């Protein structure tokens, strides 16, 4: 058995609610502009357009109750509260009717974004990674197994900063539903157990500063707490 030239990094993982088990994270996909009101606030047409995706690195995951270190090279970091879909199965060209069979569970996540760097990348027609895929940019709360909570298609989505409501939406406002997201994504990538999908954010995104305390909740799924250092 060949030896590694140095010890591999630890396996990124997310807690599973009510157990000591961990969900090993393979890939982190994100769906862009999946709420019409958020599309409008970002200056885009709210009409249903084909979904598009970007990625974050698994080692950018940050656990519930964690500290988010304010990242370098930016002065405008935005919060985006999202439901996270955790896959326990995979495949290619998955039919919408079969998509929910792949879901292990759901969690509450925050898509942190270096908005100024993202805007500059857009202006120059460059990739978004510099604005999206930085260290600790993907806080994710414990996964609630679908075997316990089902597959939530409606429920309030909120985010408070220092006790003040910033974002409000509902899962029934998703432009692309979870089965549609999974099916579409499976035509672009081969999905596998351990994949996470951040499903998009409602309107109300805004800046965070050092010292802010964030609490995100999704009805029927759970909550996440994060402090900005």
UniProtKB/TrEMBL annotation:
Name of one Pfam family that matches: FAA_hydrolase
Gene Ontology molecular function terms on file: acetylpyruvate hydrolase activity; metal ion binding
Keyword Translocase: no
The organism's place on the tree of life at top rank: Bacteria
InterPro entries: Fumarylacetoacetase-like_C, Fumarylacetoacetase_C_sf
Location of the Fumarylacetoacetase-like C-terminal domain: 28-228
UniProt keyword list: Metal-binding
PANTHER family according to UniProt: ACYLPYRUVASE (PTHR11820), FLUTATHIONE S-TRANSFERASE (PTHR11820:SF90)
Protein's UniProt name: Fumarylacetoacetase
